[in-house]
Amino acid sequence: MRLIFFCCSLLILISGSATAQQAPFSEWLAALRAEAEGQGVSAATLDTALAGIEPDPEVIRLDRHQPEFTQTFQRYIELRVSETRVRRGLEQKAAHWPALERVGQAYGVQPRFILAIWGLETNYGSFTGGKGVVRSLATLAYDERRSAYFRRELLNALKILDEGHIDAAAMKGSWAGAMGQSQFMPSSFLDYAEDFDGDGRRDIWLTEIDVFASIANYLSRYGWRNDMTWGRPVMLPVAYDNFAQQLMPAEEPKSCRRALKSHTDRFPLARWQELGIRRLNGGDLPTRDFSASMVRPAGAGGPAFLTYANYRTILRYNCSNYYAISVGMLANRLR
Length: 335
Ligand SMILES: [Ca+2]
Hints:
With 335 residues, the chain is of the alpha+beta class. It has helices at residues 9-19, 25-38, 43-50, 57-64, 73-80, 83-95, 97-107, 111-122, 133-142, 147-162, 186-192, 208-221, 240-243, 257-260, 269-274, 309-317, 321-333, and strands spanning 131-132, 172-173, 231-235, 267-268, 278-279, 291-295, 304-307. Strands 4-6-7-3-5 form a five-stranded antiparallel beta sheet. Strands 1-2 form a two-stranded antiparallel sheet.
């Protein structure tokens, strides 16, 4: 869900030279406002949401200076699936169990996965990003690098305000516009956010059961199966590297290429068992009729994971092997 943009210096150079000819922000905002009104957003909503708004230089700075991703896989997992996060997750599980159980049953998602995504996205709702979503999105939409995308998301955010799910002042999120405890972009909010407590607001900011239902609904709509887990860490036979290349798919992945390009083709678990793949404790793989692909996030020689269909659903939330494995490992600890 959260978007991670890897910036390239060439793009910055191009946009840097184009920015000089841009209309002033006030003119740009007036045109945006007219477009929103044309799409049915009320004048009252726009008056409140856009009053006194100015571009946020910090958003541009953060967008221009995203660090290269240099953390090792092991370090990433240690930090993301820390003992503190596990302990806090178990506390949250105990505190919210009736709600998690109801939501889990309603959407067919095991609560430990709802907890794990909530825990990794916003540390169980305690860190949702303190930026006003409308201002951040207006800043990024006015900026020329990805203006079409962020303009659509800004218009979506204004529709969400107009529907009354949250007040403009409370519509907070990350600097790139991912909102609330589930870190949904506005387009994902419109498609997947849920009003589980039935108060008329899809409130992913302050209503925990709506947060749980929204995460579960997202997973469910992307094909989650509650009769399987996400995958598992495995042991490889000594000869694995000799035949690993033959297991790669003939075609490029169609979506989430960044993460799936390092996955093998999908084979039944029985085939992996024949190839000598075992559980970390040396035991046989499960005898269930699942297909799985192998990924080694740290490259050859690093830890190996067999991943099931649910893993690919987690990638729909955030297209990153590091992320999906951290969700799976945290969910294992929150069982
Ligand atoms: Ca609600």
